[in-house]
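Journal club side-thread
Mid-discussion, someone asked how the predicted structure for our own chain would compare to the paper's figures. Pasting it here so we can look after the session.
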Amino acid sequence: MSLNTAASAERVHIGFFGMRNAGKSSLVNAVTGQQLSVVSDVKGTTTDPVKKAMELLPMGPVVIIDTPGIDDEGELGEQRVKKALEILRQTDIAILVVDAKKGLSKADNELINLFKKRNLPYVTVYNKADLLSTVPNDTQNEAYVSANTLLGINALKEKIAAMAKASKSDRKIVSDLVAKGDTVILVTPIDAAAPKGRLILPQQQTLRELLDIGVVSLVVRETELKNALESLKTPPKLVITDSQVFGLVDKEVPKTVQLTSFSILFARYKGDLATVVGGAAKLDRLQDGDKILISEGCTHHRQCNDIGTVKLPGWIDNYTGKKLFYSFTSGGQFPEDLSQYALVVHCGGCMLNEAEMKSRLELCNEQGIPVINYGIAIAQMHGILKRSLEPFPDLLNILKK
């Protein structure tokens, strides 16, 4: 994947936070060398988060996020502050922008405490340092700059790049489960929701990772799976399927061959596979009247047989035999208060970055709400969850609890 085509979910997300008129937007423009944000002396010019996927040397592909001031006022101001704080969910590196002449405010210190609570790498940037009589030296977590004169901007970019490198996770989708020369079959149904002329993102990324390590990769629809298996001289090392055809694929693939799904792989890649596996048992304990939240990270156009809003509720109703109620969210929407829900069912999170996916799981854990993802739910309802987790033997004990 080239830098210019890197998916936003795979880019380092850098969020700029701080008080109104601290110079957040000016600093964003100075760091990026572009006019990404509107700049004005009027407080509260930035009313909504401004996002931009771009190349930023020496870091590479990033998403820059400029947020509203955390001291905004009035009813609309409160909504803007809430939106700014929601950006923390998807932030990999936080930049706290402070007016160097005024110093840290109470709100700034509260933000720092939030960064620390989330174990979020951050740097406090004292902007307008050109107005100081003496400019202090930078420290590990502090920098003195001027967005106006560009004082210290290059040093700040180097600092952010070092933080990005240090925080980069060594995640793998599938390449640690197979080796060069192995054969892997990827089952990719083509349905009404599939983008015309291309594979969906989890399929693309999984295939690319397999190609990078020299795995022999066969991509087929579920209707050609049987022929593909029969054409091989030796069985494949692994079969990866779209969750929607889990049951059909399970019947075709020999029990001696490991089977899992793209959704399960992405639950490990983006979040915490152990957490969503642990939530699977809740499907068997649902009661009449329970409310379920089904959440998707993308905002695709809903089709008549959409998996999130149509297929999954139908499958869960049939599996449980209970009278259940459903709520749905998509994209960046995810409620802070989950107390009304008996269960959260989340997509694989391919369109969310790791920080946001993990923050959603943490919200569920903090509030004691079981959470599963599409692949785990479908495997459980087909009675093949244990089989689908064979590539991850350390997680099988969770199913016995």
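Post-session note: Confidence is low (pLDDT under 50) at residues 38-47.
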